[in-house]
């Protein structure tokens, strides 16, 4: 292989690498993650302020849908930013645990109490906002590199 052919192969590899990295950090992906955080925040607040101590509620399970969506969405992506699979595998269970504690304790001890459900809802949405922020940071750092 001569020098010119080697340079062309390296340029082609760099071009493919750039396209793959751009595909991993699309704007809609970041917006979707922030949107899921907002959905989790609103749904948890709504559930908490409407919660009563009487009987089980299927809303507890329904509110886990944004977390499940994040897990499924991440697993289906062929290209994600470096370290995101590990990040998601740590943050998602932490978010699920925070949600479980906030909802179970809130439903039993603090049904309908705004001072419990407002910070609790933000705590439940925090994993989504953290992942969205980190993806936005990665995306912007890649844009600024030549």
Protein described:
The protein has about 150 residues and is mostly helical. The protein has a single domain, classed as Four Helix Bundle (Hemerythrin (Met), subunit A). About 80% of the residues lie in helices and about 0% in strands. The chain has helices at about 5-25, 25-50, 60, 65-75, 85-110, 115-145. The longest helix has about 30 residues, at about 115-145. About 25% of the residues are buried.
Can you summarize this structure?
It contains 6 helices and no strands. The protein starts with a helix and ends with a helix.
Give the topology.
Layout: H1 3-24, H2 27-50, H3 59-62, H4 65-76, H5 84-109, H6 114-144
Helix pairs in contact: 2-6, 4-5, 5-6
CA distance, first residue to last residue: 28 Å
Residue stretches low in confidence (pLDDT < 50, at least 5 long) are: none
Q: Give the number of domains.
A: 1
- Based on secondary structure, the structural category is mainly alpha
Strand content range: under 5%
Helix-strand pattern, N to C?
HHHHHH
Q: What proportion of the residues is helical, as a percent range?
A: over 70%
Characterize the biggest β-sheet.
none
CATH topology: Four Helix Bundle (Hemerythrin (Met), subunit A)
Oligomeric state as shown: single chain
């Amino acid at each position: 292989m001569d020098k010119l052919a080697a340079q062309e192969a390296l340029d082609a590899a760099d071009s493919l690498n750039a396209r793959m990295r751009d595909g991993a950090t699309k704007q809609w992906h970041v917006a979707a993650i922030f949107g899921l955080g907002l959905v989790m925040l609103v749904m948890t607040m709504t559930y908490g302020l409407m919660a009563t101590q009487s009987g089980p509620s299927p809303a507890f399970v329904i509110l886990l849908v944004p977390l499940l969506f994040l897990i499924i969405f991440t697993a289906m992506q062929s290209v994600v930013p470096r370290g995101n699979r590990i990040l998601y595998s740590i943050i998602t269970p932490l978010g699920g645990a925070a949600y479980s504690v906030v909802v179970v304790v809130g439903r039993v001890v603090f049904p309908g109490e705004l001072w419990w459900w407002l910070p609790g809802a933000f705590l439940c949405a925090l994993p989504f906002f953290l992942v969205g922020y980190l993806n936005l940071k990665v995306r912007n750092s890649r844009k600024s590199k030549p």
